[in-house]
Structure of CxC2 domain-containing protein:
Amino acid sequence: MKKRARRHSTSVLDTSAFRLEDDFYLADFDDSNVAEKPKERPFRPSDPALQDWAQKHRNTFLQALLWHDGRGSEDIKLCTRCNRAGHTARYRCDDCFSQRLLCRECCVEVHGMLPLHIIQQWDPSRGFFSKTSLKSLGLRVQLGHSAANTRCPKPMAAHAQFVVLHDNGVHDVAFDYCGCTGAEPEYLQLLRSRFFPATTQRPQTCATFTCLDRFHIFSLKPKTTAFDFYDSLERLTSGEGAKPLDRYRMLLRMAREWRHLLLLKRGGRFGYKSNEAENAAPGELAILCPACPRPGVNLPADWRTAEPKDHCIYTQFFALDACFQLKRRMVSSEARDPSLGPGFAFMVDAKPYREYLRSATNKQEMSTCSGLKALEQANTKFSKGYAATGVGMVVCARHEFVLPNAVGDLQKGERRVKL
Ligand SMILES: [Zn+2]
Ligand SMILES: [Zn+2]
Ligand SMILES: [Zn+2]
Ligand SMILES: [Zn+2]
């Protein structure tokens, strides 16, 4: 496969145009060396496809981009869907596969089940497209009847300034709740349609499940902060810098709730019994190392009577270390902002942990090694104004899985306390 790709890339490119001596930006370029080499030696670019694109197709691509900024064809006057007199072709969707120009009625109709698409509106007097919203075109989204896709006979309008955070921006959406007898509460109607409400009483903000999933992955892989993620959503909404209604704090709350719910769901706590989420046992929701030996899970029944030479297979190895860089400022407290799952997974429950630390002797560990600066720094520098001056944890040494309830905050460096 690799060979084929390489052969193809050389065949489409005329490499005779490039020679080593042409690349005068090379730092180690040496005139004398070049003189010794045969002049006709072909120079191979690092990315032949890029060179080919730059030489032959760049202008075509540019024209295609510009074509998308316009109406496509001068001939299109009426809506390309209904083609009715008086229905001018004025609206185009950025997210639909089709780039058809539609009238207002058709645009609303085809987006009945796609309320978070981004619509462009043609301005005939100034001759360009600008962003508009489906809400301003008259789209109302019915909740509570979404499974049957019918309108409710007694719709109840949601808050006039309802905002939805989605992965393509911040949207104004006109929701109608179901007002039928026995209808579910508003927040539950939103949840049934994959919208996560920021509050349960008369919600004004929600995020789509997709948006919360994206933020979850972005915060874990490229380490995107919540502020940067929200800022990106605002930029996607308006590149000119016009700010939509500020819902940053709501995103923080929803993302925290979302992560906690995923933790409970994966741990088998489904919420069917009362207090099922609150009563998780210490460390119950942590993911255990699948490779480390666990009796009854991945060990043979006779593992205890194994020969001495095989004992190492059935031994679990632990490693313990602390990071003094991972500090947390004293911005709030456990009392003001209590944990949603104290001690449910990897961190120890803060309350008994703090009580235990208070009862332990306040003895500073002295470094006897002149070269070990980490310990000295941890004991002396930058501990004022911090709720935690580092984190210590126990992991399985072979696979680096963190053990349940094996992560604890450090206060004022590293201390050793006898049990
Ligand atoms: Zn139409
Ligand atoms: Zn669309
Ligand atoms: Zn209804
Ligand atoms: Zn392990």
In short: The chain has three domains: 12-69, 139-266, 303-410. The first strand starts at residue 91 and ends at 93. Residues 1-12 have pLDDT under 50 and may be disordered. Residues 48-69 form the longest helix (22 residues).
